């Protein structure tokens, strides 16, 4: 029996759902456009060569999470969350269709007896996500894994610490909602409510069913609807939230690994604008004189706009796990440098620049600040040994070292700001062709003691 | 090299000595040891002598691209003038710069680190571990250099060289991809460290000493300085020695 109230209620829900879906799509689109346009503030850098190798890197590192398995237990837990996230999206598609069309469990008639198996599998994943997130939360709050503690790492103070925990709580609540929704649904199926197709029991929620079986039908509908709405609204909020959060890595890990560097880690990027000038100074003919004519307004990077778009994508891809900082020799020995902070500062600056652009009609208006000095200190970048430990550790192939070196180039070449002993070293290299103060004529003296060959 | 060129001869390899190998008293011994190994193995090699300049690595890493490129360009001019094809060097920083960074400036050579070259000589039977000191049963730990390991994925060659000594190779907790830097790279060698609670080489030497090894093997002049200073700091100079791979092989060969 269908009464008028049920019909209005259903239509009201559909309209509400569409409105919410539209709002989320709009908010998400706006946010993604802003992130995209701030990444594109970066300098061009060609990362399109060797597509096959890039694809395989992405499949191994992002899709297969190879680097996460360096620590097998954490890798497995993270994999549970990741795979749960991807596959549960199939169920979300069904829920979204339900919301738009008002037809509950729209896939059930097509899949027949396979349907409960599928939902059961999703529930299995949901329980995996739930357990993993609880363990992660315990690691942050009770076990207090060092690299995640703000007392040890100042960049984790405030929002980043809260953000890390919020995300986990979010996921736990969402997973509980999904299980509640399914259990109430099963109870309603038993009562023969026509809106809830008979699917058969689900893998996990059947055990929660006894919690709901004594209740009357109306209460059950309220429970089921509440959990349904709570779950889908939660997912919508999550979708928008993640663009403001470190959690953006779930999307950007893929392009970020695809566009990662394929050259040996030891290789620094060349500065062709200087090559032209050096050639002229040495009296070597330059291939084209136009090359020499292009003098950039700035050497190295002072602000985010001077970095490459890939450095900026790196910043948005960082999930602040701190594996880089944990491996950094400077950080281990108490220096101010933290590669994670380099990435977080770059992102913070980029977000500030983005807000500035939004306020000024899409155009950045100089705010008198810059990435180096206002966000990152010279003391931090000067402590780097360029050992590549941070680059090696990053599970999504972020390269903090590349940013550090570009900031150094700016400080040294544009501002002539270097530690005094580095200036001495530069001088020695310019005049003696060695970093120490030795005469170039003595370079072969080591051979003096050797008996002549043959 | 100039001499060989004058006689119209071409060397099998050019041995790139590097600034530390030329000027640093401790590392000059490594240069000499490596030259003795090359001579014993009958490798026809040359050095640039006074025509060699710094590769420019510390300047580039410190942010001074001008100084780097000036040095790189003039080195490339010299190397190309002699028609050099193959370079061997005992310094991972020189190795990295020559191999990875000179090509973009027009210098294309086959560049080999001495750990890899020593391994090749051993594999080919051109270097035979006999006639000298025996390392059997002695504990040796190898300290990975960042510019060999993470920078260029060379982890096994130096270990193969040490295995040839038949010594007891023990690993530090942080080794290979996880190897902890000695603290000298990126221009740190030439300045005081930033304020902190500890020097990096002390952190590393504590780890090396914890293995109980009596020899710390290195394959880099900067690591050599930092590790030697670390051992001195811990007052273990008499019990623990720091040697380069080439020195250990030369000792085993009785050179």
TrEMBL record, chain A:
SUPFAM superfamilies: alpha-helical ferredoxin, Respiratory nitrate reductase 1 gamma chain. GO terms for molecular function: 4 iron, 4 sulfur cluster binding; metal ion binding; oxidoreductase activity. Residues 309-340, 374-406 form the 4Fe-4S ferredoxin-type domain. GO terms for cellular component: plasma membrane. Gene3D superfamilies: Alpha-helical ferredoxin, Transmembrane di-heme cytochromes, Chain C. It comes from the Bacteria. InterPro entries: 4Fe4S_Fe-S-bd (IPR017896), 4Fe4S_Fe_S_CS (IPR017900), HdrC_iron-sulfur_subunit (IPR051460), Helical_ferredxn (IPR009051), NarG-like_sf (IPR036197). Keywords: 4Fe-4S, Iron, Iron-sulfur, Membrane, Metal-binding, Oxidoreductase, Transmembrane, Transmembrane helix. Pfam families: Fer4_9. The chain crosses the membrane at residues 12-29, 73-93, 113-138, 166-184, 226-244. This is 4Fe-4S dicluster domain-containing protein.
TrEMBL record, chain B:
InterPro entries: Cys_rich_dom, HdrC_iron-sulfur_subunit. One of its GO terms (cellular component) is plasma membrane. Coiled coil: none annotated. GO terms for molecular function: 4 iron, 4 sulfur cluster binding; metal ion binding; oxidoreductase activity. Keywords: 4Fe-4S, Iron, Iron-sulfur, Metal-binding, Oxidoreductase. The keyword Iron-sulfur applies. Residues 14-99, 140-227 form the Cysteine-rich domain. It holds the Pfam family CCG. PANTHER family: IRON-SULFUR-BINDING OXIDOREDUCTASE FADF-RELATED, IRON-SULFUR-BINDING OXIDOREDUCTASE FADF-RELATED-RELATED. This is Cysteine-rich domain-containing protein.
